[in-house]
Amino acid sequence: MNNKEFKGSKVKSSRVENFEDLNVYKQARNLTNKIYEITRQGTFSKDYGLMDQIRRASVSVMSNIAEGFERGTNTEFIQFLFIAKGSCGEVRAQLTIAYDQKYIDEITYNALVDRARRISGMLNNLIAYLKGSRYKGAKYKKPPTKSMTEELNEMLKEIKRQQNGK
């Protein structure tokens, strides 16, 4: 995972050993716990179909982050992150139904929709980072690191090549 933790669009330098270390996973877990909390209350708890569906969608966000991380390749991780992102959208749609049915108030609705949107944005940022990363995942050998001299020599060769091509 290239030993970084993601928080929104900022990258903090701390080691990621497990999916539980990812801030986006922690946020998804928090959202899931909040969904379980609100679906235990009042008339929401009696709408078994919606209650089950919104719970399953929020669990899907967490589960897909975890499963993708454990697959060991960036390609598969990205695929599962897109599924998690879709589940975030599903949670938002179901929150809208819950709000329209007056199972939750406007403050709760806005707070949870905002939380789901932020998680979706975090997933998007993580996907973009992984797409641009040279590291392909734990199943593969890490790309060789180049010395500063090697990097500079490559840059100089590229500049010369571009100048000769003009």
Brief synopsis:
The protein is 68% helix and 4% strand.
Give the tags.
166 residues; de novo design (two linked rop proteins); two-stranded antiparallel ribbon; elongated
Topology:
Layout: E1 5-7, E2 10-12, H1 23-39, H2 48-71, H3 74-100, H4 106-132, H5 148-165
Antiparallel strand pairs: 1-2
Helix pairs in contact: 1-2, 1-4, 2-3, 3-4
What's the helical proportion of residues?
55-70%
Structural class: mainly alpha
Distance between the termini: 40 Å
Total number of helices: 5
CATH topology: the name is: de novo design (two linked rop proteins)
- What would the principal axes of the Cα set say about the shape? elongated
Biggest sheet strand order reads 1-2
* CATH architecture grouping: Up-down Bundle
Mind explaining what this structure looks like?
The protein is mostly helical and 166 residues long. It has a single domain, classed as 23S rRNA-intervening sequence (de novo design (two linked rop proteins), Up-down Bundle). The chain contains 5 helices and 2 strands; from the N terminus they run ββααααα. Helix 1 runs antiparallel to helix 2 and helix 2 packs antiparallel against helix 3. The N terminus is likely disordered.
